[in-house]
Amino acid sequence: MKWITRERPKIDRIACPWLIKRFIDPEAEIIYVPVDQVIAQAAVLNAVPFDLPGVEYTHYDDQCSFDYFIKKHELKDAALDRIAAIVRGADTDRHDFAPQSSGLSAIFLGLSKNIPDDHELLELGMKVYDGLYTWAKYLYEQKHIQEPVEHLLLEVFNKYLKQQGSKKAPAWAGEIREMIQDQIDTNMSLSLQQVSEELKINPAYLSREFSKYFEDLSFGEYIRKMRLEKAIHLMETTNYSLTEIAYLTGFSDQSHFNRIFKKQMGMKASEYKKNLPKK
């Protein structure tokens, strides 16, 4: 089958042919032509156009053509979903979608400038995406820093940074505190992704820097602490059931609430509530 798109590919128009040839149509022929010739040549060559406004295989909302290929052909693969987030971020300049997006964008912008032949670029791009798929399938949790000496150096470096107590907290830290405070009277459902989107800050950066300004706790740990503090306050001041308290403090259910409460407090929530003074 023939597939046709605009010439001078960079990200999506390399990623989509890789996806086609690896998962949809191994014998596919990929054709690149000037943008104003795509539709006419598609009809002449009986080829399927993609990554072009007005055709089926294209961008929808904040998703790119790569996303549509996965949806259209019902490709159920967590590794492809990870790659899709990276491609989407790189292709739409939304590098907050995935921390790897900026790297992918830089690689293909550079390769596109160095390699004027579209099919030569595609051949090299196929190898790049093969490597990315292997990472997304088997190695995405592996960190580059593995050796104990490197961990020690990082520990010393981080301790040194944390000693710089005079450093003023960034504006986003104050905004996050306000967002969390606003949530205290609701069910505390705030997520790191929501915060990063609201503040337009890369979630990877936010996750890395958060603990410096929030009691040396990660985002998840800090939110969990706030939930437990609110839960204890509700147990001490209301007659709500533990199920109601679990809902009001953002836990998925009472079982989840009990498990976290016991882990943090050393006793079951029911035991804690039972030992409270009678109101």
UniProtKB/TrEMBL annotation:
UniProt xrefs under Gene3D superfamilies: Homeodomain-like
Record organism: Mucilaginibacter pocheonensis
Superkingdom of origin: Bacteria
Name of a matching Pfam family: HTH_18
Residues annotated as transmembrane: none
PROSITE patterns recorded: HTH_ARAC_FAMILY_1, HTH_ARAC_FAMILY_2
Keyword Iron annotated: no
SMART domains reported for this sequence: HTH_ARAC
Domain HTH araC/xylS-type stretches: 174-275
InterPro entries assigned to the protein according to its UniProt record, in alphabetical order: ChrB_C, Homeodomain-like_sf, HTH_AraC, HTH_AraC-typ_CS, Tscrpt_reg_AraC-type_HTH
Name used for this protein in its record: HTH araC/xylS-type domain-containing protein
Record's keyword annotation contains Transcription regulation: yes
UniProtKB keywords: DNA-binding, Transcription, Transcription regulation
